[in-house]
Amino acid sequence: MTKPDTLYSHPHANLGRFAFDEHVVEVFPDMIQRSVPGYATIIAMTGVMAGRYAQSGSNVYDLGSSLGASTLSMARELTERDCKIIGVDNSAAMIERCRTYIADATTPIELRCESIQDTPLSNASVVVLNFTLQFIPATERASLINKIAAAMRPGGILILSEKIRFADQHLQELNTDLHHAFKRANGYSELEVAQKRSALEDVLVPETIAEHQQRLREAGFSRIDAWFQCFNFASLVAIK
């Protein structure tokens, strides 16, 4: 049973850094639905794009798989395809709960509890990074994208969803305010919004769409586009 997200509903004397621990796992589905505009659309279309680009005999990766929303969305589209889905997350609590969610999936799914920087990748036709790269240290992001590109078959697709920032300060402030209004409309208080923002500071480090696109081009992806954006959240596709 999914619990409502009340993690930051009371004042915390010592907030600490945000972490994907047991407390977050308990409320994660509610948290992400109320915090990320367009999340349900991104997850659903991740499955649709996997159905379009997954190649027979290949691997399909969900890097930073958390509770398996993207994993299951892809599994539903690949029931008749000779593919193996591999979900990777470094949170043992997330992987343990995810196993219960994927138990009835008919498409083969392997879960790995390890760092996505260290996990081996090969023979990939679809790779998903949904709200994952933003938690990777900035100095390690290029090497991860390069590793993904090197493991990908020609014609394969990378789906990259992220919180983004804007180079223009006015647009940055506008979209931050719109996002906070979105969260308040979904029932979060000013205290919750402020405390969550503080806990994520220096943990979630966003970049501009242009920075993501440049990194993808340098890794060898030939076709790159932002297919979805709402406020300061966006999803890109990059085709090898």
TrEMBL record:
<keyword id="KW-0808">Transferase</keyword>
<dbReference type="InterPro" id="IPR005271">
    <property type="entry name" value="CmoA"/>
</dbReference>
<protein>
    <recommendedName>
        <fullName>Carboxy-S-adenosyl-L-methionine synthase</fullName>
        <ecNumber>2.1.3.-</ecNumber>
    </recommendedName>
</protein>
<dbReference type="InterPro" id="IPR029063">
    <property type="entry name" value="SAM-dependent_MTases_sf"/>
</dbReference>
<comment type="similarity">
    <text>Belongs to the class I-like SAM-binding methyltransferase superfamily. Cx-SAM synthase family.</text>
</comment>
<feature type="domain" description="Methyltransferase">
    <location>
        <begin position="60"/>
        <end position="156"/>
    </location>
</feature>
<feature type="binding site">
    <location>
        <position position="39"/>
    </location>
    <ligand>
        <name>S-adenosyl-L-methionine</name>
    </ligand>
</feature>
<feature type="binding site">
    <location>
        <position position="130"/>
    </location>
    <ligand>
        <name>S-adenosyl-L-methionine</name>
    </ligand>
</feature>
<feature type="binding site">
    <location>
        <begin position="89"/>
        <end position="90"/>
    </location>
    <ligand>
        <name>S-adenosyl-L-methionine</name>
    </ligand>
</feature>
<comment type="subunit">
    <text>Homodimer.</text>
</comment>
<feature type="binding site">
    <location>
        <begin position="64"/>
        <end position="66"/>
    </location>
    <ligand>
        <name>S-adenosyl-L-methionine</name>
    </ligand>
</feature>
<feature type="binding site">
    <location>
        <position position="197"/>
    </location>
    <ligand>
        <name>S-adenosyl-L-methionine</name>
    </ligand>
</feature>
<dbReference type="InterPro" id="IPR041698">
    <property type="entry name" value="Methyltransf_25"/>
</dbReference>
<comment type="function">
    <text>Catalyzes the conversion of S-adenosyl-L-methionine (SAM) to carboxy-S-adenosyl-L-methionine (Cx-SAM).</text>
</comment>
<dbReference type="Pfam" id="PF13649">
    <property type="entry name" value="Methyltransf_25"/>
</dbReference>
<keyword id="KW-0949">S-adenosyl-L-methionine</keyword>
